[in-house]
Specification:
CATH topology of the largest domain: TIM Barrel
CATH superfamily of the largest domain: Enolase-like C-terminal domain
Number of strands: 17
Radius of gyration: 20 Å
CATH architecture of the largest domain: Alpha-Beta Barrel
Strand content: 25-35%
Number of domains: 2
Largest sheet: 8 strands, parallel
Shape: globular
Length: 363
């Protein structure tokens, strides 16, 4: 079975409410969708969600990398040799992690369809459902506590609060949410690189002293500040999660060797897809470090791929795959389904994507 052609399209979906972090404000989700068409009629779906402030990828750069570097190399290749296909994706361009992720997940989708099994079972099949957290955008303490209560009423039991915009008001934000939701709800913090190392230690220790019971703090310092990340990890009791510091397996190895974080957050858009995510998770598990699987503001194609990876592996113990709950519409049919905060994996082959509506074909 060979790749006959590769189509590229765009999905534009408004968010229910602007998504605010220390790095950006987003009101609309724009995603490039990849369709790998084979000579036997099977179609593999992938998606790239450009997040310039994190991955450096834009709609234009993704389209350029596909058209100029990757598509010409992949058309005509045999899907049975999917290791060679993925190697070509990873060697065809440097960086461009979102572009590589889209092609990678489309290849895994095709392989699953070729063998007639869901991707998560093909990769290990540890579980067929799991609970995700949901993100509370950074706003005033009052607005964040109101948003948090709304999510709890919807059935969520774990909140991920965006912080990193003013260290002292961050403490007030967290206290307001903890007071609003009570002691039984898990609260995770994501500073999105918004603090420096000493500031992070001061803020986290203060919250520890206040008994705010934070499950973990994600990426407290700049992505390149590995030493600062280690300083924070070594000087607080709250577990520290590395996110933007870990794009590649090489980054993960450095974090592991330095013991610079307690947990590693794997996102397909950073790692370049499932193939590299598997490598990162395996190294982390060997070192006794658990992983979280996270996402950008993605539609159900990317979330399905991340969910299949997350469900396959025992060492993935935390899920941050809430993007579909933040979208005002979802044109992607199939892939995964939702039962309150639970994500349920499809038993359809591959990623289980059935149809993509409202897709604007670009090439």
């Amino acid at each position: 079975m060979k790749i006959k052609s590769i189509e590229v399209g765009k999905l534009t979906i408004p968010l229910k409410k602007p998504f605010k972090t220390a790095l950006r404000v987003l009101a609309v989700s724009e995603t490039l969708v990849i369709k790998l068409n084979t000579d036997e009629g099977l179609v593999g779906y992938g998606a790239a969600s450009p997040t310039a402030v994190i991955t450096g990828d834009t709609m234009g750069s993704i389209r350029g990398a596909l058209a100029e570097a990757l598509i010409p190399q992949l058309v005509g290749m045999d899907v049975m040799n999917y290791e060679a296909l993925i190697a070509k994706v990873n060697s065809g361009v440097v960086r461009n992690s979102s572009t590589r992720a889209a092609l990678d997940m489309a290849i895994y989708d095709l392989v699953g369809k070729m063998y007639g099994v869901p991707v998560y079972r093909m990769l290990g099949g540890h579980k067929d459902r799991f609970e995700t957290d949901i993100t509370v955008s950074v706003n005033s303490p009052e607005e964040m506590s109101a948003d948090a209560k709304g999510y709890i009423s919807d059935g969520f039991t774990t909140l991920k609060m965006k912080v990193g915009v003013g260290a002292d008001i961050d403490i007030l934000r967290v206290k307001a949410v903890r007071d609003a939701v009570g002691p039984d709800i898990k609260i995770r913090l994501d500073a999105n690189q918004g603090w420096n190392a000493k500031e992070a230690v001061r803020v986290i220790r203060k919250m520890e002293d206040m008994g705010l019971d934070i499950e973990l703090v994600e990426q407290p310092v700049k992505y390149h500040d590995f030493e600062g990340l280690k300083f924070v990890t070594d000087n607080v009791m709250t577990p520290v999660l590395a996110d933007e510091s870990v794009f590649s397996p090489e980054d993960a190895l450095r974090i592991i060797n330095m013991r610079a974080a307690d947990i590693i957050n794997i996102k397909l858009m950073k790692a370049g897809g499932i193939h590299n995510a598997l490598k990162i998770n395996a190294m982390a598990e060997s070192a006794g470090i658990e992983c979280m699987v996270g996402c950008m503001i993605e539609n159900k194609i990317g979330i399905a791929a991340a969910s299949h990876f997350a469900a396959a592996k025992k060492n993935v113990t935390r899920m941050d795959l809430d993007a579909p709950f933040l979208l005002a519409a979802e044109p992607v049919e199939g892939g995964i389904s939702f039962d309150g905060p639970m994500i349920v994996l499809s038993e359809h082959p591959g990623l289980g994507i059935v149809k993509v509506n409202d897709l604007e074909i670009l090439s």
